[in-house]
Request: fold
Amino acid sequence: MLKIIALGGSNSTKSINKKLAVYAANQVANAEVTVVDLKELDLPMFGIDEEAIHGIPANANKLNRLIAATDGLIISLAEHNGCYSAAFKNAYDWLSRIDGKVWQNKPMLLMGTSPGARGAQTVLGIALAGFPRLGGNIVADFSFPSFGANFSDREGIINPQLKAVFDSKIESLVKAL
Ligand SMILES: Cc1cc2nc3c(=O)[nH]c(=O)nc-3n(C[C@H](O)[C@H](O)[C@H](O)COP(=O)(O)O)c2cc1C
Reply:
């Protein structure tokens, strides 16, 4: 069995990015999927003083160990004001204090989605530029626009053109695992 982490870059209980990441992970054959929920992780806000006083939170260490044990990563980023959501950036900062190679060179499918037509392209650009410097091994990336119009909870991606591109991205990830 392949181990896959599905992570939505948002702490919203209704996160569309979590939905997309979990959907994508479920397209990988013979995969054992671990869903990382940033809300459940409940990390304190990173700060040098917080770290000095209380140390690295147990759940940040747990996430680091999960990444070490996985075969592949599927991350879908929420875009807040053209950047990472605060919850994602917080987890990212904590992880970087444990290991500078945050993503540990695990093959990654990097995605982003939004209700709007730009499909989180701005934050995706930031991650595409930045992740490789922190152990990111991005083997495919995918911007999924207008989530509400193109995704159904029952059927997944319902836009045939987008589904074809998405399938090719899953294939690229599977090849790299
Ligand atoms: C504070 C805030 C800022 C946002 N900024 C952007 C933005 O810059 N670009 C964008 O496409 N959507 C933006 N949105 C809308 C998000 O894309 C939308 O809330 C989306 O559902 C986030 O994904 P999630 O459901 O996985 O949390 C913003 C939403 C919030 C709450």
